[in-house]
């Protein structure tokens, strides 16, 4: 098999199946951890009947005003390292409102093996539920190897605000190999399905059709069934060197996606914040 | 099957309207990102392994006989910006006209009736390949090839490059086209058991952004 064929096939095998049926074996020394959050609505407010910390994920209930709940994920150890298999499973039941954040950026490092680590986020939101998934960026450090998936299942009336930021390399270093898939279903139908792959040995990953020298990439997804269906695309900065973004409606309507590329994490955040302000203005 | 039918489908002169589109190259040239043969080759390589793989998967799945309406939804989910969805459907409509004239089939008629404003182009190509007796892998090849030959041809016009250099880079990309077409056909095989989520969704955020920017230009040589 040619080099290119090997890469394409590996990539398909690594994040192609989100069902968990064909999970790789992982590394014997890697960490295996599954953290779980379950939010329910008791008729007055959101409660958290399940808050299960595991491995590197220490979950902390945070104070909120109003009837929503908020959970902070605090890194209890350095992860993901090569060979780790990490999962976060979040369920927001009907009418519950939950926000999840992380206390620090997630840093993917090489670890004891060059084998890929897996980091799977599964988000489920029921009818009239609201979920805000707003982690800090994921940093792909040199020589790391990470397969990340974010699989979201939304009921038809669920609301979602999701932000994903990927920083390719710490300051002035090459990134590791980062393959990331974002798959969102609404009422069982695909709403958004995107896989990105950066770092060696991905063909053309830094070329003019892909990163073109940028080192920060991010998306912000807003799903709201009460949103008007008529939205014109918004272009945020149109140069390409200093970072740029678009805010566009998805085909299914009542969902907006901001896509941004930038030279640095701070410019990326500015672009996504600007996009969010546009989105909320409606 | 007729191998000649594959040549016809992949031929840039097949009247399916592809010549009016640059596959993002016009915007990349305006940004200075593509300016010579080397940067064009890097562009084509990156496009092939992202959009190219995703479109080839859709074409292969349609050629394999999977439900084109489910695939059309899957194509929408893989195309987050409206400018590129509109382009895919416009090209699909033009491909449909050519396909009905060359490889008429009931599948094409049904899809044309269900999506009068056009289905995503790779699905129409996949159904035309199926009608011509071609395989899923053949459809994936035609799509992968078109994904790089279109931008390369457009760049020759935009930058006055030597057409021989453009052909040379396409030849150098052959192993990558093999890899992409093969992976796309394998993924299409898995649709029966895993559903459309088994298809590749490789994407390039930058291509989405510049695709939407390009659509807002008032003066342009190519439609996309």
UniProtKB/TrEMBL annotation, chain A:
Keyword Chaperone included in the entry's annotation: yes
Query: Matching Pfam families, A to Z?
Result: UreD
Q: Where found? A: Cytoplasm
Q: What is its main location?
A: cytoplasm
The domain of life for this entry's organism is Bacteria
Keyword entries, A-Z: Chaperone, Cytoplasm, Nickel insertion
Q: Where is this region: Disordered?
A: 1-32
Q: How does it assemble?
A: UreD, UreF and UreG form a complex that acts as a GTP-hydrolysis-dependent molecular chaperone, activating the urease apoprotein by helping to assemble the nickel containing metallocenter of UreC. The UreE protein probably delivers the nickel.
For this protein, the record's HAMAP family field holds: UreD (MF_01384)
Similarity comment: family membership:
Belongs to the UreD family.
Role according to the record:
Required for maturation of urease via the functional incorporation of the urease nickel metallocenter.
Name of the protein in question: Urease accessory protein UreD
Taxonomic classification: Bacteria, Bacillati, Actinomycetota, Actinomycetes, Kitasatosporales
Q: Which gene encodes it?
A: ureD
TrEMBL record, chain B:
**UniProt entry tagged with the keyword Chaperone:** yes
What keywords were assigned to this record? Chaperone, Cytoplasm, Nickel insertion
Chief subcellular location equals cytoplasm
Q: Key word Cytoplasm present in the record?
A: yes
Q: Where is the signal peptide?
A: none
Compartments annotated for it: namely:
Cytoplasm
Q: Which domain of life is it from?
A: Bacteria
Oligomeric form and interacting partners: UreD, UreF and UreG form a complex that acts as a GTP-hydrolysis-dependent molecular chaperone, activating the urease apoprotein by helping to assemble the nickel containing metallocenter of UreC. The UreE protein probably delivers the nickel.
The UniProt similarity line reads: Belongs to the UreF family.
Q: What does this protein do?
A: Required for maturation of urease via the functional incorporation of the urease nickel metallocenter.
What this protein is called in its record is Urease accessory protein UreF
Q: Which organism is it from?
A: Streptomyces gelaticus
| Source species taxonomy | Bacteria, Bacillati, Actinomycetota, Actinomycetes, Kitasatosporales
Q: Which gene encodes it?
A: ureF
